[in-house]
Amino acid sequence: MMRVFLFALSILCVTHFTAAQDYCSMDRFDTYLWAESDIEVFTNLEYGQAVNNSGNNEHLFLDLYHPPVAEDPLTYKPCVFFVHGGGLVGGDKDSEGAKDLGYLYARMGYVFVSIDYRVGWNNGDADDGCGGDSTDLRRATYRAVQDTRAAYRWIKAYGPLYGVDTNNIIVEGNSAGSMLLLYALYADQEDYDPMFYDELGSIDSAVNELTNFGFDPIGCITEAAGIEDTTLLLIKDVPHLFFHGTCDSIVPFFHGPTFFCFQPFPYPTMNGSWPIVQMFKRNDRNYHFYIAEGAGHDAVIPDSIIVYSAPFIKEILCNASTTKEFYRVLGKFKCAVANEGELVITDVYPNPVVNTIYLEVTSTRQREITIDVYNNLGQSVLSGELPFTPPIGEYTIDLSHLTRGIYYMRLSQRQEEYVLKFVKY
Asked: For the chain, what is the mean pLDDT?
């Protein structure tokens, strides 16, 4: 049976408006205030229904985790809205990770919401999930985005009855859930194939009858995020926290087909957290980026997520968003570093060079890189230091003062060094 808060009846006739709160000065949201046993969980709140992949009408539910009403002096609280992963074929709101996050966030004073959405698509008969119907994959994505936006609308409409400050919602997703959030947050109806609208209806009016609420979170947290078109993320300026393992074999850290399916034909190309962050960087967007060197698809556990998400959200609540990067070596394989080496030049152009040369360097050490250039006689013609933060550094070196000839560039970082030959025109 659906449970409701004791205070719900007293506010049923109140409009869903919550006054601005000074959350920044409160001693909560980044520290634990209650034990797990104190948290109240409200399960299977229905936010809508829709036809699923099997052609059956499916009732869609969400769970809500809340600090103890009797002990919490704050009536309305910021909300963390969570979307699970599972490759659009599995996963649910009751997963262990979702439950762990729910209790952790609620103990810090948030309301935590975990949703279910429609899963299922024709992913073929192969054990690796490759060889499926990529059009059906996009169709499944569209259905799940409809559900994600519908659940968000439900929280905007009815969240105040459960103590949610609907002006302060942070969305968080894992794997496929991260992708769904990126689409729900940034993509408009015209960004999807029109045939999905004809088949399944609008992204804003399906699943439930709530249509007057937009998808407007104040922040976004993604674990193993990927999206086909990164330019969609330029539509809005929303602070992001990205978690991603460099050895992720499901959602690429850099670029690659979805699920790394190359055979029998490539799945849609996915851009992982690295290129997304580079786009944020080029456009002066605020972000935090947790790079888990050597980690796979499940790069971080809920306890670790909270360590980084709590200060990230508190910054947003304080209107003081910053940009930070965290590089942690969590495995013996260094997949963001070519050849598993400590210092490697992964890209250099043009060669021959006229005036400037571009370098891309990888390393696992947070230490300046020394650059030395020698002519064919072994004489030093350029030297200096390049600032470096793992795992990748990009540099443009001015060589316009050099005369024509053959040169050697040496990059060194502690005992590691890398030498390349180039021609100056």
From this structure: 91
